[in-house]
């Protein structure tokens, strides 16, 4: 026969009328992470003004927005006729030179 060890399941089961013990699971609760206390300065004493400021009421009825366009750029002068000769001009000049 085996020696009886407390908490030994085999020996507890062998006894009639004894309920075997089960080991209780270790329960660990997470400790809440606490932030260090914030240093809050005490509120500054507020000095009440001798006279209360007048109430200002503003109402806007209509807002008109206009776009500002830049001034138009100055117009370019029209290009002078170029010295490029057309084919007809070239042929007529060539014809005249050949005769002379």
> What structural class is derived from the secondary structure elements?
mainly alpha
Beta-strand portion reads under 5%
Low-pLDDT runs of 5+ residues are none
Count of helical regions: 2
N-to-C CA distance: 149 Å
Mean pLDDT, nearest integer? 73
Radius of gyration: 54 Å
Q: Tell the overall outline.
A: elongated
N-to-C SSE string, H for helix and E for strand: HH
How many β-strand runs? 0
Helix fraction by DSSP (H/I, runs of at least 4): 10-25%
Biggest β-sheet strands, sense, barrel? none
3D structure, described in words:
- The chain is an all-alpha fold and 100 residues long.
- The mean pLDDT is 73.
- The protein is built from 2 helices and no strands.
- The chain has helices at 9-14, 87-99.
Short account of what is shown:
This protein is mainly α and 100 residues long. It has 2 helices and no strands.
Jot down its keywords.
elongated; 100 residues; mainly alpha
Helix and strand layout, with pairings?
Elements: H1 9-14, H2 87-99
